[in-house]
Each structure stands twice: as C-alpha cells, then as structure tokens.
Specification:
alpha/beta, 4-stranded parallel beta sheet, 8 helices
C-alpha cells in the first residue's frame, strides 16, 4: 500500500470534498490518499505574501506526515509552496503540481501556456517554470480574472478558460495548455474536448492529476530528491 498525503496549503476547506474525490479517482489501485488543510495561514494563495504565510504550518504538516508513515507529500497549490524547503528536511518525495504539470506539458509539446486565476500570480508561475528549467518552453501565462475562492462556478470557469486557451494557441503559439490552479478541478477533459472540436488537438494538463502521477512514479521507482541539490539544513536553534 502506498500512502500519499495531499496538503492543501490554505485554511479554507471549500475544496476539501472535491479534492479528496479527485485524487482518489486518479489514484492507482493500492494508493491511499489522505488530505489536510492548514491550521494557520491564508484562506487562499494569490500572492507571494499569501505563500509566505502558509509556509511554517505547511512544513509542520509535511514533517508530521512523514513521521506518520506517508510515502510522498503533495503541496496542492500551483505555486508549489514549501516544496523545496520540505525537500531539504524530508526523506520522502515532495511534489508540486506546478512543476509536475509543466514537466508533463514540456514532454508533449515544444511550447505550453498556463491559464490561471489572477494577474497577481503570473510572476509566481513564471518563477516555477524558471526553477524547473522550462522557461524557454513557456509561451505565456494567461488568467481568467476569477479569484481562487470563486472557481467552483464550473460553467463560468470553463467558458473563461476556453477563451483564454484559444488566445494562447492562436496568439502565443502554445502547443499544450496547463491549468494554472489546483482549484480548477474536473474541467481538463471537457476543455480538451472543446478545443479538439474547434480543430486544436492539444493536451490539457490537470495539475492535481500530474502531481499524483509524479508522486506515484517516484515512490514506485524508490527514488527521492537528491541530497546534493536539497541539502539537509545545518543544525542550529530555530525559534
């Protein structure tokens, strides 16, 4: 049995039921999914400030999950908050949906665009692509002007995403599309079908699905982050 801990690095619980359903649906037979929210931090992550506020409790939750015997951690936010810091202190794979989905997109196309929530997060997403070494393949980052806590209106969301995806293909030369928010649940297949019906046979990557596939693959391969890259932090007093 493989155990994967999905940590929503936010205090809001409005996504909990759908997130658990989605990850459980995506999971391979024999993979157990568990999830948790933060006890302290922002209601959603839409800025560097929000991300900074989530980090202390995220790291506490991640360390606790490893002690409880989980095989991998997913930070369920497209900005991948806390992923690199957690990799330094944990001996299990720590996965970010942003990095994972961009890696999948880059393996399927020569260029890709990310469609996200608000302009506030564009620089954060570009930073993820730079750190993953994929900036040269990132055609654009577009947004739908819908806050994270309002993305549950699926009809409005799908229409807005589709419109921006068409622009990404026609104006930015994107050959693949990445959903730039882990709150965009359950819409990837519909968008891919709508694009195909419009004559664009391009992949649409769901970041939650991508992160789980990456987590399962690394656990099955019995590998984790390199200690030459993610060195154990020096021992010192931290208050």
């Amino acid at each position: 049995m493989m155990k994967v801990k999905v940590i929503l690095p936010i205090t809001s619980d409005i996504f909990n039921e759908e997130v658990l359903q989605e990850f459980s649906f995506y999971a391979s037979a024999g993979t157990e999914i568990s999830m948790t929210n933060l006890s302290t931090g922002p209601a959603s992550i839409e800025s560097e400030y929000d991300e900074a506020l989530c980090l202390p409790n995220f790291l506490e939750k991640a360390i606790e999950a490893e002690k409880e015997g989980y095989d991998a951690i997913i930070s369920d936010c497209f900005a991948d908050p806390g992923v690199k810091a957690a990799r330094e202190v944990l001996d299990i794979p720590v996965i970010g949906p942003g990095e994972s989905s961009m890696l999948y997109a880059s393996s399927l196309a020569s260029s890709f665009s990310v469609v996200t929530v608000l302009p506030n997060v564009i620089s954060m997403i570009r930073n993820v692509s730079k750190l993953a070494g994929l900036d040269s393949k990132l055609a654009s980052v577009r947004y739908v002007s819908i806050p994270v806590l309002e993305v549950q209106d699926k009809e409005r969301l799908v229409d807005a995403l589709y419109s921006e995806m068409i622009k990404a293909i026609e104006e930015d030369q994107a050959h693949a599309l990445v959903l730039g928010c882990t709150g965009f649940l359950g819409v990837a297949s519909e968008l891919q079908e709508r694009l195909s019906a419009s004559g664009y046979d391009v992949p649409v990557i769901d970041p939650a699905f991508a992160s789980l596939q990456m987590a399962e693959s690394l656990v099955n391969m019995k590998v984790k982050q390199s200690r030459l890259t993610y060195m154990t932090p020096p021992s010192k007093v931290r208050i």
